[in-house]
Automatic annotation (TrEMBL):
<dbReference type="InterPro" id="IPR007886">
    <property type="entry name" value="AlaDH/PNT_N"/>
</dbReference>
<feature type="domain" description="Alanine dehydrogenase/pyridine nucleotide transhydrogenase NAD(H)-binding">
    <location>
        <begin position="159"/>
        <end position="339"/>
    </location>
</feature>
<feature type="binding site">
    <location>
        <position position="267"/>
    </location>
    <ligand>
        <name>NAD(+)</name>
    </ligand>
</feature>
<keyword id="KW-0520">NAD</keyword>
<feature type="binding site">
    <location>
        <begin position="186"/>
        <end position="187"/>
    </location>
    <ligand>
        <name>NAD(+)</name>
    </ligand>
</feature>
<dbReference type="InterPro" id="IPR027281">
    <property type="entry name" value="Lys1"/>
</dbReference>
<feature type="binding site">
    <location>
        <position position="294"/>
    </location>
    <ligand>
        <name>NAD(+)</name>
    </ligand>
</feature>
<dbReference type="Pfam" id="PF05222">
    <property type="entry name" value="AlaDh_PNT_N"/>
</dbReference>
<dbReference type="GO" id="GO:0004754">
    <property type="term" value="F:saccharopine dehydrogenase (NAD+, L-lysine-forming) activity"/>
</dbReference>
<protein>
    <recommendedName>
        <fullName>Saccharopine dehydrogenase [NAD(+), L-lysine-forming]</fullName>
        <ecNumber>1.5.1.7</ecNumber>
    </recommendedName>
</protein>
<keyword id="KW-0028">Amino-acid biosynthesis</keyword>
<keyword id="KW-1015">Disulfide bond</keyword>
<keyword id="KW-0560">Oxidoreductase</keyword>
<feature type="active site" description="Proton acceptor">
    <location>
        <position position="72"/>
    </location>
</feature>
<dbReference type="GO" id="GO:0019878">
    <property type="term" value="P:lysine biosynthetic process via aminoadipic acid"/>
</dbReference>
<comment type="pathway">
    <text>Amino-acid biosynthesis; L-lysine biosynthesis via AAA pathway; L-lysine from L-alpha-aminoadipate (fungal route): step 3/3.</text>
</comment>
<dbReference type="InterPro" id="IPR051168">
    <property type="entry name" value="AASS"/>
</dbReference>
Length: 406
């Protein structure tokens, strides 16, 4: 079995890798029948020399490999027919910008396994970068706060060697009394909380956050029961909310009156209520000055997220009265928006090691040896050029006959 580690070809560049040198050595030690070949890259967070020093063979030509592993979407001209690919394909929600990619995968008889759908029997994801999105997103939220107030200056996370260096910078700042709000309770939100805890902030509950004033900075993390309610007045039930999001309405507005910095880390279903409508921003007493939309659902629950931003240009302003993008940090009446959609790419070494370890612990046995639980089968969108039954709903999208997500 030959595994090829692809260089990342998506633009803007992504420096992450699914098999860091240390993880590859674990794979080779456990599976003696496996060989790993590295495609050279001048942007990868682990240099070519780091792989060579560990004994890997580097080659541009991966045509002899059986399985090709990347992180983000693979450039269509580089797709090799009749191979098995693992990467985040972003096609399963009918994203218009990747329809031609799916067509080429089908045309070339490729088998496509998507990381997003590698799940256990309880539908829990086995690998994800979400934790690191939260870690970096909270840091960038604080960086925006510092620029906006001129009280402190944090370097971009992308200029830090790793999380440890990023946190060293964070420990040097001091916040004035502000209220920080985080929505969500999963990996992303926990990553954001990890970053904020570096500052030893006081953590308060939602009622205290809404009702009281503080002479120190505080942070509050809220779950869905604090920002939605059943339309018919019945008691909140989390599973019911997941199953029937259209039956709920937002109760988020009170938080807009007391929050200074909002870090959005929630999962959002298009059928569930929105957090912030354009009208909410215009109301008297609207207090939020910085929104770090880590979830980054475009045309989604947060009206000021007009577009995704980039690692190189992370912030833009939102004119809350004209509903338009503005130059960041110029007019303090505007909301500062951070909506980078590949945040883990700012700490590529840390996030790659974590992701690679999760693959090693949870996936490679199923991929390289035995898969009695059907882990690989559930995550396979296309098998040898044919949509699998689980993803057969993509046929209309593939043929251009269906509505798609922009």
């Amino acid at each position: 079995m030959r595994i090829g580690v692809l260089r990342e070809t998506k633009n803007p560049p992504d420096r992450r890798v699914a098999i860091p040198p240390v993880t590859g050595l674990q794979i080779l030690n456990k599976y003696p029948n496996v060989s790993i070949f590295i495609q050279p890259s001048d942007i990868r967070c682990f240099t070519d020399s780091e792989y060579r020093e560990q004994g890997y063979f580097l080659t541009d030509d991966l045509r002899d490999c059986d399985i090709l592993i990347g992180v983000k979407e693979v450039a269509m001209p580089t797709l090799i027919p009749n191979k098995t690919y693992l990467f985040f394909s972003h096609v399963a929600k009918k994203q218009i910008y990747n329809r031609e990619l799916l067509r080429q995968i089908v045309k070339k008889n490729i088998t496509l396994i998507d990381y997003e759908y590698l799940k256990d029997n309880h539908n829990k994801r086995l690998v994800a970068f979400g934790h690191w999105a939260g870690v970096v997103g909270a840091y960038k939220a604080l960086r925006a706060r510092g620029v906006r107030t001129d009280l402190f200056d944090l370097p971009p996370a992308s200029l830090c060697e790793d999380m440890e260096e990023m946190y060293l910078h964070l420990k040097k700042i001091s916040l004035k009394p502000i209220k920080i709000l985080i929505t969500g309770g999963g990996r992303v939100a926990m990553g954001a909380m990890q970053t904020l805890r570096v500052l030893n902030l006081k953590e308060v509950g939602p009622e205290e956050f809404l009702r009281e004033s503080f002479n120190e900075p505080v942070v509050c993390r809220i779950d869905p029961e604090s920002y939605v309610e059943r339309k018919d007045g019945r008691d909140f039930n989390l599973q019911d909310f997941y199953n029937y999001p259209e039956m709920y309405q937002s109760t988020f507005k009170p938080f807009t009156k007391v929050t200074d910095l909002f870090i959005a880390c929630h999962y959002w279903d298009p059928k569930s209520p929105k957090f912030l409508s354009p009208e909410d921003y215009k109301e008297e007493g609207f207090n939020i000055s910085v929104i770090a939309d880590v979830s980054c659902d475009l045309n989604g629950p947060i009206a000021s997220t007009l577009r995704a931003s980039t690692i190189a240009s992370s912030f833009y302003g939102y004119d809350r009265f004209n509903e338009e993008e503005a130059i960041p940090f110029v007019d303090k009446r505007n909301v500062t928006v951070m909506a980078v959609d590949n945040l883990p790419g700012e700490l590529p070494r840390d996030s790659s090691i974590d992701f690679g370890e999760a693959l090693y612990q949870n996936v490679y046995e199923a991929l390289l040896a035995d898969d009695p639980d059907g882990i690989i089968e559930r995550a396979t969108i296309v098998k040898e050029g044919v949509l699998t039954p689980r993803f057969a709903y993509l046929q209309d999208y593939l043929e251009g006959k269906d509505a798609v997500i922009v």
